[in-house]
Amino acid sequence: MNDFMERISLRGMGVALATPFNDDFSVDFDALARLVDHQIEGGADYLVVLATTSEAVTLTCPERNEVARFVACHVAGRIPLIMGMSDNCTARIAGHIPEVDFTGYSAILSVVPFYNKPSQEGIYRHFKAIAEASPLPVVLYNVPSRTGKNMEAATALRLANEFPDKIIGVKEASGDMKQIAEIIAGKPDGFQVVSGDDALTLRLIRMGAEGVISVIGNALPHVFGKLVHLALDNFDNPIANEIDQRLQPLDRALFAEGNPSGLKCLLSHMGLAKDVLRLPLVPVSDMTRKDIALALAAVTKTEFLQNAN
Questions:
Q1: Rounded to whole angstroms, how far apart are CA atoms 276 and 290?
Q2: What sign has the CA pseudo-torsion 40, 44, 49, 54?
Q3: C-beta of residue 197 within 8 angstroms of C-beta of residue 215
Q4: What CATH class has 2-233?
Q5: Which residues are 229's β-sheet partners?
Q6: 105-115 per-residue burial string, b: 16 or more CB within 10 A, e: under 16
Q7: Which residue of the set 141, 149, 166, 187 is catalytic?
Q8: Which one from 128, 149, 166, 171 is the annotated catalytic residue?
């Protein structure tokens, strides 16, 4: 088990991979291949496929399968992969998991059930069912701004303690620093806490988090990855602090009109993917587009990149 746990370490910068689309809204697999290579060349530690940033909820089941298999084949073992698998119907996801081809993947990431607004006991039983059905370890994902329900620290720790071989970590995007500190302080050995919010990553690493599953890493893996690794080595590193300060305006601009709308704008600006989203998401406004371009220019100044590379 120890070797397996090392193979799926969440330490460092994971990237929640976007799904590029063509003008006709079909999946742009050429751009997806370029984006994957951009992450690997930029030093990403692992990729998360079919999570929130991927617009997975707008993909059909055959499309999700095709994207998962394409990424696994294109990566070809060069970097660890985690598959996003979420549903607000426990029976449906528990029944579907055994049918999935997980070849090339090391874990699954699953979000707190959305819309239903379950109790903490309901959240516990949902993830218990997923852990029992999954052949892979499970990473919990808490993002109440999207799901409408917060997974409290006591629930995350209950799951971590009762399923130590199956539930191996949590991506925390609640923004509740007290709650996250409680999880870090009370977690069992081997349970990994990672940031789900790029802007808070440095603060969470200082509290004891293992890293981040990043959005901005899609565009700037070398820069944001540098911040993460410098901070993990020494959370008072001045270069990590500088990178964090430079990235904060870009973080704000990217999320001003929601994710991945801001990210798709940034990827388009950098020539990595088209600025195409599936409804109900739409491209950002001209004002936000300008803010993103200005913030990117500030980040990519030559003297700054000399520190970041």
A1: 17
A2: negative
A3: no
A4: alpha beta
A5: none
A6: bbbbbbbbbbe
A7: 141
A8: 171
The pair of structure tokens assigned to 175 is: 């923004």
- CA–CA separation, 127 vs 138, rounded Å? 9
Q: Where are the beta strands (DSSP E) in 85-176?
A: 107-111, 138-142, 167-172
Task: Say if CB 7 and CB 206 are below 8 A apart.
Answer: no
**Percent of the chain predicted with pLDDT > 70:** 95
CA distances from 244 to 215, 226, 239, 281 (A): 14, 10, 8, 28
Instruction: Tell me the pairing of strands 167-172 and 192-195.
Output: parallel
141 given a catalytic annotation: yes
pLDDT digits 0-9 by tens, 101-113: 999 999 999 999 9
Neighbours of 232 (CB within 10 A): 17
Local structure of 122: helix, strand or coil: helix
Report pLDDT for 309.
57
Q: Which helix (H) or strand (E) holds 68?
A: helix 61-75
